[in-house]
Amino acid sequence: MLPLLRTPVATPHTLEEALSLLAEPGARILAGGTDILPNLKRGLGSPSTLVSLHAVDALRGVSVGDAGLSIGAGTTLTQVATSGDVKRMAPSLAEAAESVASPQIRNMATLGGNVCLDTRCRWVNQSDFWRGALGGCLKSAGMNPEASFAQAGVCHVVPGGKRCVAAISADTVPVLIALDATARVASASGTHRLPLAELYVNDGVQNLALEPGEMLLGVDVPTHAGARRERYVKWRVRGSIDFPLVSAALRFDLDAGALTQARLVVGVLGARPKQVAVQKVALGRPLDQALATELAELAHRQCKPLENVPYEAGHRRHMLRVLVRRAIEALADEA
């Protein structure tokens, strides 16, 4: 059992208090703690203060308004998965939330924590001792610049690479991007909104486009009035607990049986999800077997996994093609 280093924990009760504490240099958010605490035990980061959000009620809850579905960042994944409003308006999001880890973890983990989940890599999500034997890497150096083993410029996945390729493995993120969700972000100086896809940058060390002191308040999913088919699929070695080794979110809007919108977003490739270009192929066509085969081939052609998470990259790429084809076939049967 790896010990957790002594770190001060602050427990604000209001959003204003939380943002004020988060503005302090080195402060980090503690929501459910299911990701950050294991990482801190591995020596991935050394925050000056952990700002616990468990007492900030304003960050929790699911509501429906004229603009659509609104979910607070502090809402647990269990609450997202079991919400009648989420199941009705964004069933693939409920699917994704329910697929995370185990019931015990989903009872603690929050939607905001999943959206802001740290990137993972087989070479960095190890103990400090294990990483030290390899001389560190781009991500461990970036997170712990004082560490004696850190050697900036070393990547064990892409030799000579200058950008960390640790992968985003959050289940809800591809779904939210496919559904055109918006992120609500706040700091002590104010709030703003941005498309969820723009919350991520292509850098595994820090893949969130959040400034120091900024915090995710929640996500909004717009209302869709017409016919829609959506699904989330992933492949992992075990049916629970494990992080996905490849994942895909699919969304198809139809009018009179013909596609008017098509989204295919793939996760666990790099630091941000990959939006596969499927619009030109899909628009105006029916959701059928032929389209399932074509879009699966497009995903296979456009997505090239790296050896950044366990299991062979080639097999993960093959599994992506299989997952996408089967998911679209199942949606075609429903349609």
Q: Would you kindly provide a written description of the structure presented here, covering whatever features stand out?
A:
With 335 residues, the chain is α+β, with helices and mostly antiparallel strands. It has a domain at 227-334: Enolase-like, domain 1 (2-Layer Sandwich), CATH 3.30.390.50. It contains 13 helices and 12 strands. The protein has helices at residues 15-22, 36-41, 77-82, 84-89, 91-98, 103-108, 111-115, 128-134, 138-143, 172-178, 279-282, 289-302, 313-334; strands spanning 9-10, 27-30, 49-52, 62-65, 68-72, 182-187, 190-195, 215-222, 227-235, 246-255, 258-267, 274-275. The strands form 3 sheets. Strands 4-5-8-6-7 form a 5-stranded antiparallel β-sheet. Strands 9-10-11-12 form a 4-stranded antiparallel β-sheet, with helices on both faces. Strand 4 and strand 5 form a beta hairpin. Helix 12 (289-302) packs antiparallel against helix 13 (313-334). The longest helix has 22 residues, at 313-334. The radius of gyration is 20 Å and the shape is globular. The model has no long low-confidence stretch (mean pLDDT 95).
List the helices and strands and how they pair.
Layout: E1 9-10, H1 15-22, E2 27-30, H2 36-41, E3 49-52, E4 62-65, E5 68-72, H3 77-82, H4 84-89, H5 91-98, H6 103-108, H7 111-115, H8 128-134, H9 138-143, H10 172-178, E6 182-187, E7 190-195, E8 215-222, E9 227-235, E10 246-255, E11 258-267, E12 274-275, H11 279-282, H12 289-302, H13 313-334
Parallel strand pairs: 1-3, 2-3
Antiparallel strand pairs: 4-5, 5-8, 6-7, 6-8, 9-10, 10-11, 11-12
